[in-house]
Amino acid sequence: DIHVQYERVGADVTMKCGSMDWDAAVTWTANGTDIDESHLNGSYLILKNVDLSQSGQYSCYEGSSWHLKYQTYLRVGIPPKEPVLMCRSNNYPKGFYCSWHLPTPTYIPNSFNISVIHGTKDMVCEKDAVPKNRCHIRYLQLFSTVKYKVTLTVTNALGKNFTTLIFDEFAIVKPDPPESVVAKPVPNNPRRLEVSWQNPSSWPDPETFPLKFFLRYRPLILDQWQHVELSDGTSHTITDAYAGKEYIIQVAAKDNDIGTWSDWSVAVHATPWTEEPKHLTTEAQITETTSASTSSFMAPPTTKICDKGAMVGSGAMAVCWTAGLVVAAYSVFFI
Amino acid sequence: MAAADSPSTALRRRDLCSRGIRLAGKMRADVVDLLDAYVEQQGLDASASVAAVEGVPLAAVERWDEQTGTQRLLENLAAYRAFRALLAQMLEEQREQLGEADAGLGRALAALLLQVSAFAYHLEELLRLESRGVPGEEGDGPPPPRLSLFEQKLRGLGVLRELAQWAVRSVRDLRQLAKPSTATGAASDLAESP
């Protein structure tokens, strides 16, 4: 017979070798490895203050014949703590779902049972195949002031725990974030960005249950967001963007009348339109351009200090009268 | 076989529905504000559960999406007529009990009563547009039983809570009604309804 034995972390465990007498000569193994006799009290195996690493297969063999007399799987774990439960309607008015998890692992198998009561009526929460810790309920009534009471009980071999949520129909309505958010520059408008998005695909009837939206945006170089609330439509033009700065933009959604705001959408980035830089050209460059027609090189703009006619000297030492006078004045000053 | 809506009827319905949606939205906002003030001034617990009060129309409905346009209008009208009477009663009790002590609450109740009356009239207009006779109002029944002060307060809480739910439901009902497909359904009800 295969036995499974569940024990709490920190417990003292005594294992008997099946029907063997206390004074029988036996050998115990843990996962195939002999256990030292210091852990034995007669034929009993004593494990004090067990920890998770001591989970495994324990076997007891008769001393001389090495016949297997007893075998058990020891699973060390902890009783469940209060589970975390959340219920939400992202597809109003069709229904809502509840999902749960344990705040800390128990290291042994757990089972979950959920009950949903609306007034005096028991409702069935149909478990989802994926993920496993979720179930959904279809609304049988709408616009009810009667609250829903959801109780989740978690049980394992070492104990049980539960939590309860009480809420009304409107309070848990929270759409999924808007989808397909796109932000584009507006040609010839250095301070505008055009943003568009779509209703979340999980929201079943946006015509009868329209969503409103909250848009937030900021240049990457700043921490403070600008906010705009939009009561209809799925697009907006930002008109006060800083020219040339890259922006980060997000959108959230909420039913027009009830519930709470969705999480923020995936962020999109965009930079407003900027004019192409125009190069300054001198007479020499225009001449060079026209004479060297095969060359595509454009000389960089030069800063003129003085006219060509005022140049003195030649080559690298050529200076103009104005510059020469300044240098001369400084020289006299420092002599 | 029901005739299709004329363009002018469809436009008029859409216009009435739009205005009705705005009315109901404003009404809901005011009821929510009034609820907060009511709970505080009456010394009630906001989370108190109030059992369904006799005579208060419940907004809760099953198979809401399957209702016809005419059903929606008739149920809404019956509800708001009931709320009109309930709010008038609340106002009278408020004045008897507190006189001028709670003038703010009294004014808010009176303003809400006006909105409810206006909305009921709006619903009647929509029903006339559907060429549906507007049901007559039920005559005054026997006088309501005299409640203790605490029972009056609890009933008031129930009235305002249900009215808040109805305001949300009415917005949804009118949006359904404003849809072209629903409008056709409402017209075809005319032939089918007794």
Describe the structure.
The complex is a heterodimer of chains A (335) and B (194). Chain A is mostly beta strands and 335 residues long. Chain A has 3 domains: 3-77, Immunoglobulins (Immunoglobulin-like, Sandwich); 84-167, Immunoglobulin-like (Sandwich), CATH 2.60.40.10; 179-270, Immunoglobulins (Immunoglobulin-like, Sandwich), CATH 2.60.40. Chain A has 2 helices and 26 strands. In chain A, β9 (84-88) and β10 form a beta hairpin. The longest helix of chain A has 14 residues, at 321-334. By secondary structure, chain B is an all-alpha fold. Chain B is 70% helix and 1% strand. Chain B has helices spanning 7-41, 69-98, 103-129, 149-178, 180-192, and one strand at 61-62. In chain B, 33% of the residues are buried. The interface between A and B is medium-sized, with 16 and 21 residues.
List keywords for this structure.
heterodimer, A: 335 residues, mainly beta, Immunoglobulin-like, 3 domains, five-stranded mixed β-sheet, four-stranded antiparallel β-sheet, 7% helix, 42% strand, B: 194 residues, mainly alpha, Growth Hormone, Chain: A, elongated, disordered C terminus, cytokine activity (chain B), growth factor activity (chain B), differentiation (chain B)
Please write out the topology.
The complex is a heterodimer of chains A (335) and B (194).
Chain A: E1 3-8, E2 13-15, E3 26-30, E4 33-34, E5 40-41, E6 44-47, E7 56-62, E8 68-77, E9 84-88, E10 95-101, E11 111-118, E12 121-123, E13 126-127, E14 134-138, E15 141-142, E16 148-156, E17 159-167, E18 179-186, E19 189-198, E20 211-219, E21 226-230, E22 235-238, E23 247-255, E24 268-270, H1 283-291, E25 311-312, E26 319-320, H2 321-334
Parallel strand pairs in A: 1-8
Antiparallel strand pairs in A: 2-6, 3-4, 3-7, 5-6, 7-8, 9-10, 10-14, 11-12, 11-16, 13-14, 16-17, 18-19, 19-22, 20-21, 20-23, 23-24, 25-26
Chain B: H1 7-41, E1 61-62, H2 69-98, H3 103-129, H4 149-178, H5 180-192
